[in-house]
Request: fold
Amino acid sequence: MSERSDLDILADLGLEPVRKAKTANTPREARIIAGFEDIQKFVEEHGRPPQHGEDRNIFERIYAVRLDRLRDQADCVALLRDLDHQGLLSSSAAETQPAPSEMDDDALLTALGVTPQGGRGITELKHVRSLTERRAAEDVAVRQPCEDFAAFEPIFAAVK
Reply:
């Protein structure tokens, strides 16, 4: 008697093998998942979500920006909802800081650690001469014929 395969035995029992539906992620989805897993590893190591700020590590700042972008995109939230066991996507950490578009220029500069400069800003020209200064320089270079050039001509010939 020949040895029967597993498929034959299942067919005799009236069963079909369970095929696992393999959901292939697109390359974009795979990058999103990998990036979110990096953020989760950071949270596991440090015990807190990544935060913005100049005093933070460059990777923490990258993870903070990435997490903000993931929270903003509904398709990313839907993709990562099953993987989010730490509650990072529904966290209220995004609401603690106002969005840069809601801040005025001085508040944004202060948040970035730059002291705002006084004055008119972009409308104030520092290194550009006025029209009268430029015209004065042009007037110096205006040529006029020399009335007594014949008297100076031998001197110019001697210089050559």
About this structure: Residues 128 and 134 are 10 Å apart (CA to CA). The two ends are 120 Å apart (CA to CA). The chain has a mean pLDDT of 82. Residues 23-123 form one domain.
